[in-house]
C-alpha cells in the first residue's frame, strides 16, 4: 500500500502511520535508536515497512499515558525514515530512524490498528545576512561552552556542529544534543523561521549554562568539604594512635565512659536503660564532629538528668500540715480540707495517684501562692510554668529529635528542674491557652491530667514513657468557660471566691503588712498602721476580688514612710485613716453604694465580674412612640434576650399590673445599664430589668434598699444563677439590706460568710410576681401609664398577684436565723 496524495490549499498532504514517542523527540537530520513495545506502535512500524519505510514521529504531551488519544499527541512532529529494524526478545522491536522533514498533523485518518495521520510539510523560512551569521556564531560558541560544563555531551560533537553550514540544520543538531525537557525541545521544533529558532536556542543555551555553572559551584563546595572531613578524620586517627601510645584516653572514650557511669547511677527503668545504652553505642561509633553526635549527646544528657527514681518523702503529719496551711493563708477552708484529706488517705494507703486540682477564682485571691503553700505542707518540691498564650502542642509534648534545636515539653522540663518525680506541679492560667495550625495544647494536656493515662506519658523528644502518676498537679484559672470540657472533666474544680472587706483586713494584718515592711527595709517598731487606715485603703484605693492591689498600696505607704525616716523624721510613724490620703493621694474609687432612695424605673441588680461582684442600677423609661424597645449600655446577646423576655412577660401580665393593654403600641421603652463603656452579658439581670420596666409603666417606685438577681422566663419563673457569694458580698459592701435570690440557689447560701449573714436579709423567690410584691412600693400620683389612661382592661381592679398567690408560704432566709 502506498501513501496517498491529496491536493489541498497550502500544498501537498500525505498520509502516513504515526508512532507516538514518550520522553524523546527526534529532529530533522537526527539519527537515533528507538525501543518499541506498544502494540499500536509495532503495527505502525510494520505498515511503514510496506510504505517506503517512512512514518511520522510525534511526542506525547504526557509520558505517563500508555494508550494515548488524539488530544494527547503534539500536532507538530517529523517525517522519519526507518534505517534498520531488529526484533528483540519478549516481542519488542529496536529500530534506527532518521528525521527527514518537519510536518504538521492535519487529521487523524485512522486510530486502529494503529494511528494513521494526514500531514502537511512545514517549509522552513530561511534568511541570510549578518544577523543570521552572528546568531550562528553565538550558538556555536555557547554550545562549545555548554559541552565543557555539561560532561553529558561528547566533545567530538563540537567539531561536527562547527562543520555544518546550513543555519537551520545547525539549530536542529544543537537542539537535539541539549539535555533539557522535551517540552522545550518541542517548542524549538514548532518554530519554522530559522532566525527565530536560533534566537530561542541562544536564550535556552544561556539559561542552561547558568544552571550548569551553579551546579559546578555546588559540586566544588561539596568536594572541598569532603576533602576537609577526610583530612580531619585522618588527623584524628593519628591523634588517637598517639594517645594510645602515650596511654591517654581520647575525649570521645572518656565522654562515653562518663555517660555509662551516669546511666548506672540514675537507676533507670529497664526500657529507658536499653534506650540510653543504644544511643550511647551510636555515639561511640560516630566521628566527634558529626552533626548527629551533638543531638545524641543532648538526648543522653536529658535521659540521665531526669528523676526516674528520685522522690521526696511526704510529710504525713496532718496537724503539722494544717499548721503550715494556716500560717500561709487566711480562709480558703475548702482547699485546706482537701489537702488534709489527701494526707489522711496517704497515711492509710502507701500507693496513691496524685490528685489533679483546678483552682478557679478572680485574680489576686492567692491561687498561685496557695499551690506553693501546699508543696511546703506536703514537703514536696514545687515547680510552676504558665500556659498563658501557649498555642503549640509541642510546648507540652516536646519536639521530635529530627528538628534542629529540639527539646522536651514543659512538663518534662519542669520535672528536671524539680529533681523529683513527685513534685507539686502548678500549671498556671490554664484558661488562657489557645490553638493554631501547630496543634491544640489543650488536647495534649488530656493525657497529662488523666490519672488513668499519665503513668505512661509519652514525650516526643524522649521517645520513652515517663510516669507522672506521682505528680500532684494543680491548675489555676480565672474562669471555667474557657477550659475545654474534656479537660475540665479530668480535674477536681475548687472555687476560690473573692474576699470580703473583713477578710482582706485580716490578710493585710497577718501577711501583707509585715511582708511589705520587711521588703522596704523597715521594722515593725518604725511604722504602725491602724485598722481604719487599712479599711480606707481597701474601700477607696482598690477595687478587686483579691488583694494584689492592696499589697501594692501598702508597699507605697512603706516606701514613702521610709523616705520620711531617711530625711530625719523620728520613728515610729503612725498611719491612720486621715494620713492615708496624704500618702496615696485622692481616693481612686468611690465606694459603690446603693442610692438608698426609692425611685420609679430604677432597680438595683447584682453582677459577677472577674474581679468579684458589683451592683448595677438598671434604668427603664417610657416615652410616646410606636412600640420600639431600645436597649443600651453595651449589652451582649444574652442580656438583650433577657430584656426582650422581660417585656414579653410585662405585656402578658398588663391587665393584672394595671397597665393599658395596648401600651406597647403607643409608647417606646428604653432600658439602659449605666457604665456603657464596659461590656455586659448574662441572663441574671432578667428579673431586675422586668422590675424596672414594671416600675416605669405603673409609677410604683422600686425599694432603694433591695437588690436582686435571677433569670426570668416568659411565664415569670425565676431561674437560678451563678456567683451567689460574690453578688451578696457586693450588695453588703454597697449597703443593701435585702437581696432577692432565686429559690433554686438555696444551696449556695452556705458559702456566704457568717458576718455577712448577720447584716443582710436574703429572700428566696420562685416567680416574678413575688419579686414585684417585695420590691415595689405604692404608686406615686401622676406617674406611670395607668395614671392617665382608662383603657387598662377588664381586670384593672384585680391585684397583679395571681389568684391564691398570697396563700403561698413566703420563702425567706434571714442571715441571723
Kindly provide the radius of gyration, computed on alpha-carbon positions and rounded to a whole number of angstroms. 45 Å
Cα distance spanning the termini: 121 Å
Bulk shape: elongated
Low-confidence stretches: 1-11, 787-817
Structural class: alpha/beta
Quick one: how many beta strands?
26
Kindly state the mean pLDDT as a whole number?
Answer: 81
Total number of helices: 27
Strand order of the largest sheet: 19-20-18-17-21-24-25-26
Largest sheet: 8 strands, mixed
Strand content: 15-25%
**Roughly what percent helix?**
40-55%
Please describe the structure with a list of short key phrases separated by commas or semicolons.
elongated, 26 strands, 18% strand, 817 residues, disordered N terminus, eight-stranded mixed sheet, five-stranded mixed beta barrel, alpha/beta
Amino acid at each position: 500500500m502506498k501513501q496517498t496524495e491529496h491536493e489541498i490549499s497550502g500544498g501537498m498532504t500525505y498520509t502516513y502511520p504515526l508512532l507516538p514517542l514518550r520522553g524523546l523527540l527526534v529532529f530533522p537530520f537526527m539519527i537515533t535508536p528507538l525501543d518499541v513495545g506498544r502494540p499500536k506502535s509495532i503495527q505502525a512500524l510494520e505498515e511503514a515497512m510496506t510504505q517506503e519505510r517512512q512514518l511520522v514521529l510525534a511526542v506525547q504531551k504526557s509520558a505517563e499515558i500508555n494508550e494515548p488519544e488524539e488530544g494527547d499527541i503534539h500536532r507538530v512532529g517529523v517525517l522519519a525514515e526507518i534505517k534498520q529494524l531488529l526484533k528483540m526478545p519478549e516481542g519488542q522491536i529496536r529500530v534506527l530512524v532518521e528525521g527527514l522533514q518537519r510536518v504538521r498533523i492535519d487529521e487523524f485518518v485512522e486510530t486502529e490498528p494503529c494511528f494513521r495521520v494526514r500531514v502537511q510539510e512545514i517549509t522552513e523560512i530561511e534568511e541570510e545576512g549578518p544577523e543570521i551569521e552572528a546568531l550562528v556564531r553565538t550558538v556555536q560558541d555557547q554550545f562549545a561552552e555548554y559541552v565543557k560544563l555539561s560532561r553529558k555531551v561528547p566533545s567530538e560533537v563540537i567539531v561536527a556542529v562547527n562543520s555544518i553550514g546550513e543555519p537551520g540544520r545547525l539549530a536542529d543538531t544543537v537542539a537535539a544534543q541539549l539535555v533539557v525537557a522535551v517540552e522545550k525541545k518541542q517548542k524549538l521544533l514548532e518554530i519554522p523561521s530559522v532566525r527565530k529558532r536560533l534566537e530561542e536556542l541562544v536564550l535556552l543555551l544561556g539559561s542552561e549554562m547558568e544552571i550548569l555553572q551553579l551546579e559546578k559551584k555546588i559540586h566544588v563546595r561539596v568536594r572541598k568539604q569532603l576533602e576537609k572531613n577526610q583530612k580531619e578524620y585522618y588527623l584524628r586517627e593519628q591523634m588517637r594512635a598517639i594517645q594510645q601510645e602515650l596511654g591517654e584516653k581520647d575525649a570521645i572514650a572518656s565522654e562515653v565512659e562518663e555517660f555509662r557511669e551516669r546511666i548506672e547511677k540514675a537507676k533507670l527503668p529497664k526500657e529507658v536503660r536499653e534506650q540510653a545504652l543504644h544511643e550511647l553505642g551510636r555515639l561511640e561509633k560516630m566521628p566527634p564532629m558529626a552533626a548527629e553526635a551533638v543531638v545524641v549527646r543532648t538526648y543522653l544528657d536529658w535521659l540521665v538528668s531526669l528523676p526516674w527514681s528520685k522522690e521526696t518523702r511526704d510529710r504525713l503529719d496532718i496537724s503539722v500540715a494544717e499548721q503550715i496551711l494556716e500560717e500561709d493563708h487566711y480562709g480558703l477552708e475548702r482547699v485546706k480540707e482537701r489537702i488534709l484529706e489527701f494526707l489522711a488517705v496517704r497515711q492509710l494507703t502507701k500507693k496513691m495517684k496524685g490528685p489533679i486540682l483546678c483552682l478557679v477564682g478572680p485574680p489576686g485571691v492567692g491561687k498561685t501562692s496557695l499551690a506553693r503553700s501546699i508543696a511546703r505542707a506536703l514537703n514536696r518540691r514545687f515547680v510552676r510554668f504558665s500556659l498563658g498564650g501557649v498555642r503549640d502542642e509541642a510546648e507540652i509534648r516536646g519536639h521530635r529529635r529530627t528538628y534542629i534545636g529540639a527539646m522536651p515539653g514543659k512538663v518534662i522540663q519542669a520535672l528536671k528542674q524539680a529533681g523529683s518525680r513527685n513534685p507539686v506541679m502548678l500549671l498556671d492560667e490554664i484558661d488562657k491557652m489557645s490553638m493554631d495550625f501547630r496543634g491544640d495544647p489543650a488536647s495534649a494536656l488530656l493525657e497529662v491530667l488523666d490519672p488513668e493515662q499519665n503513668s505512661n506519658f509519652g514525650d516526643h523528644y524522649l521517645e520513652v514513657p515517663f510516669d507522672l502518676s506521682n505528680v500532684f498537679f494543680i491548675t489555676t484559672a480565672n474562669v471555667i468557660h474557657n477550659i475545654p470540657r474534656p479537660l475540665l472533666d479530668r480535674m477536681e474544680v475548687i472555687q476560690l471566691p473573692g474576699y470580703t472587706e473583713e477578710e482582706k483586713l485580716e490578710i493585710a494584718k497577718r501577711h501583707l503588712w509585715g511582708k511589705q515592711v520587711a521588703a522596704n527595709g523597715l521594722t515593725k517598731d518604725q511604722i504602725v498602721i491602724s485598722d481604719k487606715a487599712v479599711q480606707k485603703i481597701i474601700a477607696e484605693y482598690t477595687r478587686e476580688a483579691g488583694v494584689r492591689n492592696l499589697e501594692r498600696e501598702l508597699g507605697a505607704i512603706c516606701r514613702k514612710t521610709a523616705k520620711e525616716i531617711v530625711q530625719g523624721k523620728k520613728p515610729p510613724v503612725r498611719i491612720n485613716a486621715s494620713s492615708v490620703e496624704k500618702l496615696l493621694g485622692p481616693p481612686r474609687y468611690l465606694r459603690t453604694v446603693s442610692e438608698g432612695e426609692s425611685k420609679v424605673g430604677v432597680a438595683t441588680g447584682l453582677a459577677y465580674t472577674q474581679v468579684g461582684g458589683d451592683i448595677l442600677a438598671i434604668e427603664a423609661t417610657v416615652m410616646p412612640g410606636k412600640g420600639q424597645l431600645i436597649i443600651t449600655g453595651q449589652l451582649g446577646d444574652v442580656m438583650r434576650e433577657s430584656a426582650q423576655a422581660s417585656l414579653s412577660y410585662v405585656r402578658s401580665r398588663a391587665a393584672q399590673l394595671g397597665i393599658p393593654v395596648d401600651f406597647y403600641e403607643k409608647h417606646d421603652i428604653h432600658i439602659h445599664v449605666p457604665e456603657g463603656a464596659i461590656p455586659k452579658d448574662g441572663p441574671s439581670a432578667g428579673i431586675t430589668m422586668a422590675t424596672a420596666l414594671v416600675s416605669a409603666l405603673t409609677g410604683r417606685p422600686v425599694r432603694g434598699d433591695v437588690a436582686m438577681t435571677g433569670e426570668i422566663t416568659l411565664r415569670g419563673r425565676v431561674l437560678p444563677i451563678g456567683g451567689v457569694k460574690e453578688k451578696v458580698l457586693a450588695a453588703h459592701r454597697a449597703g443593701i439590706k435585702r437581696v432577692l435570690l432565686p429559690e433554686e440557689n438555696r444551696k449556695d447560701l452556705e458559702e456566704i460568710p457568717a458576718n455577712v449573714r448577720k447584716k443582710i436579709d436574703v429572700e428566696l423567690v420562685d416567680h416574678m410576681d413575688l419579686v414585684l410584691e417585695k420590691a415595689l412600693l405604692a404608686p406615686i400620683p401622676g406617674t406611670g401609664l395607668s395614671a392617665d389612661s382608662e383603657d387598662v382592661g377588664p381586670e384593672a381592679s384585680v391585684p397583679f398577684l395571681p389568684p391564691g398567690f398570697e396563700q403561698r408560704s413566703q420563702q425567706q432566709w434571714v442571715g441571723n436565723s
